[in-house]
Design a protein that fits this description.
Blueprint: E1 2-6, H1 11-22, E2 26-31, H2 40-48, E3 54-56, H3 62-72, E4 77-80, H4 87-92, H5 94-114, E5 119-125, H6 151-168, E6 174-180, E7 182-184, H7 203-211, E8 218-221, E9 233-234, E10 236-238, H8 239-252, E11 256-262, E12 268-269, H9 270-281, E13 287-290, H10 305-311, H11 319-332
Parallel strand pairs: 1-2, 1-4, 2-3, 4-5, 5-6, 6-11, 7-10, 8-13
Antiparallel strand pairs: 9-12
Helix pairs in contact: 1-2, 1-8, 3-5, 5-6, 7-9, 7-11, 9-11
Bound molecules: uridine-5'-diphosphate.
Length: 339
């Protein structure tokens, strides 16, 4: 199948392009390159021996989406990765988040539906779930807009609402909501990985910068949570597993609306993740306990069994695979793609 990946030069999009090409599909990237590098396409070509053409433009602009269709269509499917994703920044700049994260969906749907796409695969988030009493989160767990702590998560849940309404009046269309847990890791080649601009907010890229000597120490945000070692637990998923989940969703897409959790289902604490990274590096990393970060939950992890039953997909890569691949990427690209 031929797929338009909006935000396809970004972290999850690029790994998905690789997985699509390796599975025999065609991938075209639409990306405004605000949070990634155009060099990604060259890296994808080196890994796959195939090409993922890049259309430089915004998924929020109907004209740019139309240009992608005119130059590279028709497409069987759109995958929508084009979003702002920094939780803290979203609290500071709610309008930027609501505008970008919804405008992209409107433009992609308008052009995509007018041009006969059969499926629309949306990057949602495990942060749409709002009640820790529901752990492990199934797809039916509580999702309540007013309970969500930040505009990033709210913008994703709002997208889900829009998409459900659009599907109702387009009964032949598949809309798949993929609720990601915490994507980490990098392609095992070390050619493609996460390249956050500035100081990373997320734990894994932060630890990687400490390991390479660019930051002095890992701050552990709280060790008095009600978890086995007192530090926060998350459901980290290797980005290549996540990418393969998109290929499975594409290949299994049937008319209708479906939501799937993409995670491992295994809660991993901050201390466990840092210890795994230390195994990858071969020595201890400087670290100290800091106060809790505002808005953090003690634990989030999913029940991924629906994706296994319905999509035939299951995450297979371990925590040590994730940290090893991040360390490999970080060493080979200490300054990111353009460094
Ligand atoms: N965390 C930490 N130090 C950091 C960044 C994050 O201890 O420098 C913790 C954070 O409190 C949470 C976990 O690591 O328990 C994952 O945080 P991240 O920002 O990566 O993901 P999210 O909280 O958005 O799921």
């Amino acid at each position: 199948m031929r797929v338009l990946l909006a935000g396809g030069a970004g972290y999850v999009g690029a790994h998905t392009a690789i997985a699509l090409i390796e599975a025999g599909h065609e991938a075209v990237l639409l990306d405004d390159l605000t949070n990634t590098s155009g060099l990604v396409t060259e890296r994808i070509a080196r890994i796959t021996g195939g090409r993922a053409p890049l259309v430089a433009g915004s998924a929020a602009h109907v004209d740019d989406v139309e240009r992608a269709f005119a130059e590279h269509g028709p497409f069987d499917s759109i995958m929508h990765f084009a979003a702002k994703k920094a939780v803290g920044e979203s609290v500071e700049k709610p309008l930027d988040y609501y505008a970008n994260n919804l405008d992209t969906t409107y433009a992609l749907l308008r052009v995509g539906i007018a041009n006969g796409i059969r499926s629309f695969i949306f990057s949602s988030t495990g942060t749409v779930y709002s009640d820790p009493a529901d752990l492990p989160f199934t797809e039916e767990a509580t999702r309540n807009l007013v309970d969500l702590s930040n505009p990033y998560s709210k913008s994703k849940l709002m997208n889900e609402v829009v998409l459900a309404d659009v599907q109702k009046v387009n009964p032949g269309l598949n809309i798949t909501l993929l609720r990601y847990f915490n994507p980490v890791g990098a392609h095992e080649s070390g050619l493609v990985g996460e390249d956050p601009k500035g100081t990373p907010n997320n734990l894994m890229p932060f630890v990687a910068r400490v390991a390479v000597g660019a930051l002095p120490e890992v701050g552990i945000f709280g060790d008095d949570y009600d978890t086995p070692d007192g530090t926060g637990q998350r459901d980290y998923i290797h980005v290549v597993d996540l990418a393969e989940g998109h290929v499975a969703a594409l290949e299994k897409a049937q008319p209708g609306l479906a939501a799937y959790n993409l995670g491992t289902g295994i809660p991993v604490s901050v201390r466990e993740l840092v210890a795994s990274f230390e195994r990858a590096v071969g020595h201890e990393l400087p670290k100290s306990v800091k106060p809790r970060r505002a808005g953090d939950l003690a634990a989030t992890y999913c029940d991924p069994s629906k994706a296994e039953h319905e999509l035939g997909w299951k995450a297979t890569r371990t925590l040590d695979d994730m940290t090893r691949d991040v360390w490999n990427w970080q060493q080979k690209n200490p300054g990111g793609y353009e460094g």
